[in-house]
Amino acid sequence: MKPRLPPSAHIFWDLDKNVPLVGWRPPGNIIRVRATPPRDVRFMMGVDRRITEEAIIREYGDASLTSLLLPSDQLILLNKVPYVDAGDEIIVGGSVIGHRFYDPKRGHWRFKPLYEGVSRMIYEELGYYAIVNLPKLAPGFTIHRGHVVKSQLPDEKGKFVAVATKNGQYHAVARIIRNQRLYVLKSWKASPPRYINRPSTIRDAIRANERRLGMLSYKAELLIHDALEKFRLPAFISFSGGKDSLVLAHISSERVGLSEAIFNDTGIELPETIENVEKVRESLGLDVIIASAGGKFFSSMHKLGPPARDYRWCCKVCKLAPIAKAIKDHYPGGVLSIVGQRKYESASRASIPVISRSRWIPNTIVIAPLNDWTALDVWMYIFKHGLKANTLYWQGLDRIGCWLCPACELAEFAIVQEVHPELWTPWEEFLTSWAKKHSLPQEWVRYGAWRWRRLPGDFKRFLDKEGIDQSKFNVPRAAIHVIVQSLERDQIIMRINGGVSLLRARELLKLLGGRIMVGRDGICVQDKEIAINVNKDGIVRICAPEDRLRQSASLVLTLLARANLCTRCGLCEIWCPKGAVKVEPDIQIDALKCNRCLLCNRACPVATYALIGDYAKLSFSERASRIRGG
């Protein structure tokens, strides 16, 4: 099955005005920008230019090449493309001149010329280039020195070279390999370079897209008005300190009259984001509610281990729990959450309707007025209205959020490390200590492998190329490990390493119903068909009919994991429809109120994410066969 992809934006270029056009193609000297989908393009600004210039000079040692490829008086766009780490297409005059990408091994950005960039390098004979006496070029072909009729080539392997056939019909980008041979990475039908000698600015782009910006703003305003009228609920602006929520806050406050906002302070926000929230609050006159996670991330990471893209306990603990609590406290009768979600950001966001009921926060309806906006629309709106955008965008970050988020690339971490070493150094020390404790190689930290529990294919290939043994990366994250000691048709005996917190276990096992008996060394739960025994040493015995044994064992394990690893985030308390769960000063279950719905279990990050050793890795039938087979 192919992965779902987000929809693709339609981007054009007015060659006479030298500006991009979003979403429509008027009559005139207009071309389609053939960038990689979803084409959520943005302006090159701030240190982005310096980063790109340095990458070109580092690759080719020729400063004159930067002015050829990156005209200083023209608009340049960046478009995210897939690489093992961060990567962007660079668009000049409506054409792709190349890719910049972050090299995890070298720890810096590199530049690879493509299309317009290759044409200019060949035409001007700048940088590394080669003219070859071949009829055509194809990816995977190796060009030997005997085929090269004119060139300027590097001695260093791995450098990128612009290639053209002598007959002028094909262009390519190749990589230098041993003995100065050229390995063709990509080829295409040649076209002459297109030089647009017309200066252009962001203001020019705004004027060219004025009609679209007005339409998008009006549509967003109308959507918010209609939602307020339909649902008759109070509303708040979900403000993150990022560009999308900034535009949302301006439209909601200036054009709709909303003044209440919620900012989620996860405890791992960069100082610039906190400062931006205050600036926007003052400039727009917002009443900002702070949904703070306090130090929950750092207290939880010692129990649950580093978060990962496929192990996002941090989102529940630091985002959902504080936001849900703030909403419950301030809007007990339900609320509309106005969010800056856009469909071009990801396939998952594109699949969410413009108006939806929150899956994660009770009694909350989510409205996404910016759903049809591209990043370029957002930036043009910000510059048009002179809004106070987060300064981190000019320091090289394209997304604003938790500074150690596992969804970040190494390129983003490098910026954090440079701008805020006082934050990054303790985090890197924790990762190094955690890796040492679990006998992980130093590459696990160096290359950011902690960002996944199960490594993706492109990252695996990168590690293979570097000769790094990935098998040593796969260790349980949470500090709980379960070993199945005996499995029969109607009974299973397990041992939890480190024992069980009996006080919490006694409370959480109330969720099962039945009669609970507590002794000095353990707990017994008994109902009509199921018997559960848990002792302080972590021995767990479950007796149940064969058709209920698997379900019962899985449920008991999640409850015991909660007992050992509870972060007291409060999501269980928030989701309980009967008010039967309390987490302060510690977990308490009111058995008389509890209706055994187990919504608290579904909300709990520990129950959702805790990896519990061999039991979690095998299917139930595999466990049975392995144990019975000795």
Radius of gyration: 29 Å
Helix content: 25-40%
Structural class designation: alpha+beta
The unreliable regions are 613-630
Number of helices: 22
> Strands of the biggest beta sheet: in what spatial order?
10-14-13-12-9-11
Largest sheet: 6 strands, mixed
Strand content: 15-25%
What keyword list fits this structure?
single chain, 630 residues, alpha+beta, six-stranded mixed sheet, 22 helices, 28 strands, 36% helix, 21% strand, globular, disordered C terminus
Q: What this model shows, in words?
A:
Helices cover 36% and strands 21% of the residues. It contains 22 helices and 28 strands. It has a 6-stranded mixed beta sheet with strand order 10-14-13-12-9-11, covered by helices on one side. Strands 17-16-15-18-20-19 form a 6-stranded mixed beta sheet. Strands 21-22-26-25-24-23 form a 6-stranded antiparallel beta sheet. β6 (87-92) and β7 form a beta hairpin. α16 (502-508) packs across α17. The longest helix is centred in the middle third of the chain and has 22 residues, at 210-231.
Walk me through the topology.
Blueprint: E1 11-14, E2 19-22, E3 30-32, E4 42-43, H1 47-60, H2 64-69, E5 76-80, E6 87-92, E7 95-103, E8 108-113, H3 116-124, E9 129-132, E10 142-143, E11 148-152, E12 160-165, E13 170-176, E14 182-189, H4 202-208, H5 210-231, E15 235-238, H6 243-256, E16 260-265, H7 271-284, E17 287-292, H8 296-304, H9 313-330, E18 335-338, H10 347-350, E19 355-357, E20 364-367, H11 375-385, H12 410-419, H13 421-437, H14 443-446, H15 457-465, E21 482-487, E22 491-496, H16 502-508, E23 515-518, E24 522-526, E25 531-535, E26 539-543, H17 546-565, H18 571-575, E27 581-582, E28 588-589, H19 599-603, H20 605-609, H21 613-617, H22 620-628
Parallel strand pairs: 9-12, 15-16, 15-18, 16-17, 18-20
Antiparallel strand pairs: 1-2, 1-3, 4-5, 5-6, 6-7, 7-8, 9-11, 10-14, 12-13, 13-14, 19-20, 21-22, 22-26, 23-24, 24-25, 25-26, 27-28
Helix pairs in contact: 4-11, 5-6, 6-11, 8-9, 12-13, 16-17
